[in-house]
Structures are given as C-alpha cells and as structure tokens.
Amino acid sequence: MTLYDEEFSARRRLTLRGHASAPGGTRTAQPVHATHAVRSEQDLLSVRHAVRAATVEAGFALVDQTRIVTAASELARNAYVHGGGGSLTIEVLGHGPRRGVRLTVRDQGPGIPDVDKALTDGWTTGSGLGHGLGGARRLMHEFTIDTAVDRGTTVTAIRWNDR
Ligand SMILES: Nc1ncnc2c1ncn2[C@@H]1O[C@H](COP(=O)(O)OP(=O)(O)OP(=O)(O)O)[C@@H](O)[C@H]1O
Ligand SMILES: [Mg+2]
Question: What top-level branch of life does the organism fall under (predicted)?
C-alpha cells in the first residue's frame, strides 16, 4: 500500500464519520480516543490506518503524519513481536491551534530489563535492526517507557503540532 492510498483511506473514513455523526450534514470535530488490539499482522496494518486518521484529525501536515504513523508502527510491532501482543490507544490532545497525538502502547510480555540498551541503535534481541525503539523516540516530542521484567511494557509518546 502506498502512502497515497493510506492518506486517501484516512480521509475517506473521516468524511464518512463526519456524515454519520452530524445530522445536519455539517462536519463536527470528533475527539479521537480509541484502543486497538495489536495481536496480528493485520492489526498492525489497521493500527497504521487509525493513527493516520487521528493525525489528519489533529491537523498535522503530511510529513508529521508520517512521523507519527512510523513511531506507532514501530511501537506496535514491538508489542506484537517482543511483548506477545498488546494494545495501542490513540488520543487527539488539545483544542484550537495547539493539537497533539498521544500513543499508548501496552503489552504484558517479558518487559525490558535494560531500557538504555534497548534504546541504543543496533541493539536487538531479535532479528530486526534494533532501530525501532530509538527511532520512535526521535520521531516524537515526549516519550516514556514504563516496564518491569515479567510484568510488561507501556510506552507513551506524544507529538505536538506547534514545535
Ligand atoms: N515491548 C517490548 N517488550 C519486550 N522487549 C522489548 C519491547 N520493545 C523492545 N524490546 C527490546 O528492545 C530491543 C530493541 O527494540 P527495537 O525496536 O529498537 O529493535 P528490534 O525490535 O529488535 O528491531 P527493529 O529495528 O526491527 O525494531 C528489542 O530487540 C527487544 O529486546
Ligand atoms: Mg522493534
């Protein structure tokens, strides 16, 4: 799927939702707050679409939309691959001109014993490149990892539109 396809389907869903939620036909702003399962490859794809739609709703330009979708994709894939599956919550923050998107990715997997190492580019316990977590942090403005061995991992990340 190309970036254009994704963008197009994000816009189409927003349009449909606008019609469905506005009896008078006028599109009303709808705060996004949704939790998605991250338990399959298909879920990873759905999550990308949902995050794209939220970034459009929050008014981000295309390059920032893609930054946020990429971060979400890396975090969701980590929850799926390393955490045994989990969830992603998407929230649109703020009012008026200052808007943001918050991603909260949770799993109840093995946890991350050494967060500094996990954030180091090239460090991996799997077969990836070891760039996902550090890359996601660089793409977002606020980034918190809450993890405990055998209890799971929650990563919270925000990007704002005014920085
Ligand atoms: N949710 C998680 N649960 C447990 N361990 C994790 C989690 N997320 C990351 N890690 C650990 O941190 C390491 C680094 O993660 P990172 O996303 O940077 O690289 P990767 O997933 O191994 O490869 P890729 O470049 O494909 O993302 C992982 O190899 C894994 O050991
Ligand atoms: Mg990864």
Answer: Bacteria
In angstroms, what is the span from residue 16 Cα to ligand 2's centroid?
33
Convert 87-142 into a string of H (helix), E (strand) and C (coil).
EEEEEEEEECCEEEEEEEEEECCCCCCCHHHHHCCCCCCCCCCCCHHHHHHHHCCE
Q: Whole-angstrom Cα distance, residue 153 to residue 9? A: 31
The tokens describing 87, both together, are 């969830």
In this prediction the pTM is 0.85
Q: For residue 130, what are the CA distances in angstroms to 82, 117, 122?
A: 12, 10, 4
Instruction: Give the DSSP letter string of 64-82.
Output: HHHHHHHHHHHHHHHHHHT
pLDDT digits (tens, 9 = 90+) for 57-95: 999 999 999 999 999 999 999 999 999 999 999 999 997
Instruction: Give the pLDDT score at 26.
Output: 41
Structural domains of the chain sorted by starting position, each given as residue range(s) with its CATH number in brackets: 31-160 (3.30.565.10)
